[in-house]
Structures are given as structure tokens and as C-alpha cells.
Hints:
The chain has 2 helices and 11 strands; from the N terminus they run H-H-E-E-E-E-E-E-E-E-E-E-E.
Amino acid sequence: MSSSLVLRRLVLGAFMITMLVWIGAVTAADLNPTPLNPSAITIKLPKDINWIESPSGSANAVVVGDPNKPGFYAVLTKWHAGHMSRPHFHANDRYITVLSGTWWVGTGTHYNYDTTTPVPAGSFVTHYGKQIHYDGSKEGDAVLLIMGEGPATSTPAEEK
């Protein structure tokens, strides 16, 4: 068999596998028959993340720990377009990475939608404990990874 024929077959085979993966007919597990050791690593694919919608205009998915209990937690939060929280504070520091969209933030007890600051995807923000802020999304969803020490409380602090 000529080397050009072998090369064409390899390229065709790689193309076929790529197309099967792309259309979803083949998964990563099909291509790697050796399973990962679950005591060494776990993977949660997007389809396996349990998002819980809130009637207030956001969705949350706990990915590590339990924010209602003492200890480290990590939560994915999706602020839906047009939803903003009211001034509030948290007991503990929170560390936030904006994964997608633009997150809008403001500080102080007086809520003012027009003076919020845009925080683009890729940004890292620290919300300091007991400091008043409000936040959300103006246009398009914004997805955040929020990490901190629980319990994660939220106390309203709006000026009346």
C-alpha cells in the first residue's frame, strides 16, 4: 500500500471521527475507553449541571459544597437579562469570576440602575463582607462563578 493511500485513509478517518463527535454521535468516553478514576477527578459536563430557576430573575447551580452551611462553596449564578438585585450585603467575602456576558454592579444603600458599572467576561471581583452592593444584568444573561465561605447569607440594606 502506498504511503499516499495510507495518509488519505488516516485523514479520512480523523475527519469521520471529528464529524461524529461534532454531531454528538460519539462521546469522549467512546474515544477514550479507559475511564477516569473518580477518586482522582470528577467532571460535570454542562448538560449535567443542575440549574435552579428563581422567580426573582436568576438561576443558580451549586457546584461545590453547600452555601447554607459553614465551609467553602462554589455556585454558578446566571443573572437573566433585565434583572437587578436591590442593595444588600453578605456576612462573608465573596470571590466572583464573570464567565460570560456583562455583569453590572453598584454600591451603597440607594439603588441607582443608571450608575451601575459594567464588569465584562473574564473579570474577577471581590465582594467584601458586610459592604453594601447591588448587581445584575442589563442586557443578555451574565454567568458568574461565585466562591466563598458559608453560610452565604444576604441581608437587605436599601435606603427607605
